[in-house]
Write a structure and sequence with these properties.
With 524 residues, the protein is of the alpha+beta class. The chain has three domains: 89 residues, Sandwich (Immunoglobulin-like); 307 residues, TIM Barrel (Alpha-Beta Barrel), CATH 3.20.20; 89 residues, Sandwich (Immunoglobulin-like), CATH 2.60.40.1180. The chain has 13 helices and 32 strands. Strands 18-17-16-13-12-21 form a six-stranded parallel β-sheet. Strands 24-25-26-32-28-29 form a six-stranded antiparallel β-sheet, covered by helices on one side. Helix 8 links the parallel strand 17 and strand 18.
Length: 524
């Protein structure tokens, strides 16, 4: 007897064409319609996987017997068209939250992410961009287990080769353009294993379809028709996994530069709607104005980046993310590329410290309704197996050195991300909203790096203020009335009581335990 497919896990169907095709990637489209036990229908595209093989992957969300049938644009091919069958789906028996609570999407209020059953999901991402391309299976599993235990919930990666990495660890490329664009199934068969492993470790896979920073990156070099066909094929391949999609990565999508991407996104992600799709803009650019009316863009991401100047800080404390969340329609906002730990700052070349990483992370979480934040480690994302120079991977930083990836897994910055997750998970984090009015004084007006980010829950029973450089928090009168007050240490996660210092009638004063960064936590 065939073992039932657990709910929220992929069920794969295999088809074999009975016709010889000159360009199988382009010549035929195949779709499978599956009928759930409740009578609901699901339509998924199949994808060519080399030779005469097509596959379709369905992610069932109901236990019971599912039936299915195929339709191909080439109705004369009995291997692809008019094939039918059924499969059994059973409950998931395990601890993996992706499979226990179901697919991820945007919450009802539009400001955060949640599972299909409504359980909130906090995005704690790791930008291990090259990891799936350069890792072997054992190393990838060890990396994922480490990140899972540290509290990460999302793994961000590149889906194809790029300017600094012209093939994967086995010399395979994602696509070729010999006469006509076509994918290389062997490349993606290997990538399938890496994506499945992310999900099996209980984490969301966040895939950048193509980079779009430099002219030779696929997002700019590929014609729109090729890119549309490829992105649709990749969605068919990984759509049954738990994936957040970034159509274009690290690009300038402002103004007319967005024109190429809108029709591609509509064609690939609108029918049926994909619940998690975004664009990853470069520098301190913001995608809201260009994509606000594009329903296929379901959440916003941005990067505050790797500069140490005031432009980066302004992006975090009073830039578009701090105001755009109030516009309609609302979307979750996530900083997916703040300061990387050990990354040499542009201009000064001084590496960012764990304190820099924490500051950017807590600012990101509290100046918009919190949906999550990502972390990066300068050497880890490149996945060097031995010390090597940056080389062509990052222009302008060719002389810097990368350390072997296993040596930078257990860093203070990575540990601090688990502490951050623990802090927000201690209460209904998804109800927090920026609340500058709880502060009677904003030190950031005198010194930008001292900016204090404050938030309050919708019920008013939880108030948070992040103090990046020690000192005092001056609250408006009555803010802490009837509430317990504690300090939270974002370095090691310990709590200690907070006592109100003497002050006048116009404010409430709390002084940090030392000169480092702290969170003032008030709860009723």
């Amino acid at each position: 007897m065939t073992t039932p497919t657990p709910v929220w896990t992929p069920h794969e169907l295999v088809f074999h064409s009975e016709r010889v095709r000159q360009s199988p990637f382009w010549d035929v489209d195949v779709f499978v319609t599956a009928v759930a036990p409740s009578g609901k229908t699901v339509r998924v595209p199949a994808f060519w996987d080399g030779g005469d093989t097509w596959r379709a992957r369905i992610r069932p969300d109901e236990p019971g017997t599912w039936t299915w049938s195929s339709v191909a644009t080439d109705e004369a091919d009995p291997g692809l068209h008019g094939v039918s069958g059924e499969f059994a789906c059973g409950p998931f028996d395990g601890v993996n939250e992706l499979y226990r609570h179901g697919a991820l999407g945007v919450s009802g209020d539009g400001h955060s992410l949640c599972h299909a059953d409504g359980k909130p999901f906090l995005w704690i991402g790791d930008t291990v961009w090259n990891g799936p391309l350069r890792s072997n299976e054992e190393d990838w599993s060890n990396y994922l287990e480490s990140r899972r235990s540290q509290g990460f919930s999302v793994v961000q990666f590149f889906s194809v080769q790029w300017r600094g990495l012209h093939a994967d660890a086995e010399g395979q490329v994602a696509y070729t353009q010999d006469g006509r664009f076509t994918v290389n199934p062997a490349f993606f068969q290997r990538m399938d294993e890496r994506v499945r492993a992310i999900n099996h470790h209980g984490m969301l896979a966040s895939a950048i379809v193509v980079l779009a920073l430099f002219d030779e990156d696929a997002g700019l070099a590929l014609p729109a028709d090729d890119l549309t066909r490829f992105a649709g094929w990749l969605r068919a391949r990984w759509g049954a996994y738990h994936v957040a999609w970034t159509l274009g990565g690290d690009g300038d999508f402002t103004g007319t530069r967005a024109d190429k991407w809108r029709p591609i996104g509509r064609a690939v992600f609108s029918d049926p709607p994909e619940p998690l799709v975004t664009m990853h803009p470069n520098g301190t650019t913001w995608p809201g104005d260009e994509f606000r009316d594009e329903s296929w863009v379901t959440f916003y991401t941005y990067q505050s980046g790797h500069a140490g100047d005031e432009n980066m800080i302004h992006m975090l404390v009073d830039g578009p993310p701090a105001t755009d969340w109030m516009k309609s329609p609302p979307r979750p906002i996530i900083n997916i590329e703040p300061n990387y730990e050990d990354h040499p700052a542009y201009v000064t070349s001084i590496p960012f410290t764990p304190a820099d990483v924490r500051r950017a992370s807590y600012w990101s979480m509290l100046t918009t309704p919190p949906a999550g934040v990502s972390y990066g480690q300068y050497s880890l994302w490149a996945w060097a197996s031995e010390p090597e120079s940056v080389g062509a991977a990052i222009r302008g930083q060719e002389a810097f050195r990368l350390e072997p990836w296993p040596t930078v897994l257990d860093t203070p910055g990575a540990a601090n991300m688990g502490v951050l997750r623990g802090f927000f998970s201690s209460g209904p984090w998804w109800t927090l909203r920026p609340a500058a009015d709880v502060l009677a004084d904003q030190p950031g007006e005198r010194k930008l790096t001292d900016f204090q980010a404050a938030a309050r829950s919708a019920s008013g029973e939880w108030v948070v203020a992040y103090v990046p450089a020690g000192g005092e928090v001056r609250l408006a009168p009555g803010v802490s009335a009837g509430m317990s007050a504690r300090w939270f240490d974002p370095r090691d996660g310990h709590w200690q009581s907070a006592q109100q210092a003497s002050g006048g009638d116009q404010e409430e004063r709390f002084v940090t335990p030392d000169s480092q960064d702290w969170l003032l936590d008030l709860r009723r």
